[in-house]
Amino acid sequence: MNIPLSNSTIFALATASGRGAVAIMRISGPQTLSILEKLCHSVPKVRQASVRQLWRRGDKDELLDQALAIWFKGPNSYTGEDSAELHLHAGPAVIDAVADALVAYGARPAQAGEFSKRAFLNGKVDLLQAEGISDLVEAETQAQRRQALEQTEGGLSVVYQGWAQKLREVLAFQEALIDFPDEDLPEEVEQNLKSTIETLYEEMKAHLDDAGRGERLRRGLVFAILGAPNAGKSSLLNLLADRDAAIVTEQAGTTRDAIEVRVVLGDVPVTLVDTAGLRETEDLIEAEGIRRAQKIGREADCVLCLTDASIDVLEPEVKCDFWIRTKKDIDVSRETLDRNDNKILFISVKTGKGIDHLKQVLAEKAKFLTARQGPPPLTRVRHRLGIEECVQHLEEAQRLDWPELRGEELRLAMQSLGRLTGTIGVEDLLDTIFSQFCIGK
User: Domain 10-125 classified CATH 3.10.350.10?
Assistant: First the structure.
């Protein structure tokens, strides 16, 4: 890749802003060593944590802090460049003073994701691993952490690199058929070529057929609560969230807009959405709330439909995964009943009976929707689109008999796969990908 590396030296906090015991300031770039020489009386040994006084040099030298300094000589660093870490006392005044000194010594504040971008440009990680680092920083649950860590360690990269190697071999065979048409090449050359293309095609199709489990786990699930007005939707939201997130009154139609609460079910982050009650109305505001509720129900990963246990179950205008019967004393022997392919669960939002069982059922649903099956899953729309594009080219390659046209489709498939890991044509993707990172990463 002909992507220019910056000659500037950058710095940023790698820890959260605010008061604390320690704040870590990261530095990376060609001036790192000279900056350390100015800050410290003596530069620490490579990769050895050492206590140093940090100074702002000038007409009158000023002591800024006593800190732990670590010096990483490139390419043996996170970014592949000369780098350093300063473990400062985390007072805002200390951080500001050190930042001002770094600017005076020639460094500049880093942009979002610039450290990881430099790591990619210096060949320390590929794009998939870099995205895994971003996901690891954002992980809310242990399941998200495990998925992100596997991607950071190269689990997804290994799968795609294996496909890329097979594509390279196929291209080599295809070029041989194009360049030496008059040679007596063995018949099995083209047979093996077609067989490998078909195998790659089937493997990638299977990879795509994962019901979006990796993407769901990364972003979290959405569980919508639908039902008629005053069916107990807001009360159920509060019980599942273990706090008073929604206003509950005896007046029907209190909820006009969607109310969202983030919880963890089955080690999966889930956004619970309380919606406006579904009914016929001439109130324009309530009608808009109902329209939004129906839209949320259509797009949700799971829909809970609440009904008063004293009335018949009504079919809503959207899918329904679980029917929740409320407002009735519960016969505990009737916790769950099958209704076609769905489940009916009985709860009391007033006494809380049945809520623990409901939480267990919803946790199992969340686990099922994000369960790992086979190789590392797709985690982003970018990955899915890239593999889909590669599959389209492989499908076209299988259809074509002309070696030149088939070879072109194989090259296009190779490019689609290469853009995922960052080995081909990634210039336009970099700013978009790394701008999603935090500043100190």
Answer: no
